[in-house]
Amino acid sequence: MALAERSVKMAITYESVRTHLLPIYILGVDINKVQEPVDRPNGYPSYQLSLCVDGSGIFIDENNKEHVISKGDLFFFSPNTPHRYKAVTDEWKLPYIVFTGQASGNIVDYLEFGKSFVLKNIDEDDYNKISAMFNRIYSAYFSDIELRYARTSSMLYSLLVLIAETRRSKAKIQDELSMQLAPAMNYIRRHTHEDISVDDLAKIVGVSSGRLSVLFKQAFGLTPAQAVRKYKLEQAKHLMDSRPDMKVKEISERCGFSSVSYFVTAFKKEFGISPTDYKNNFSNAFFW
Question: Bridge partners of 116?
Answer without folding.
Answer: 77
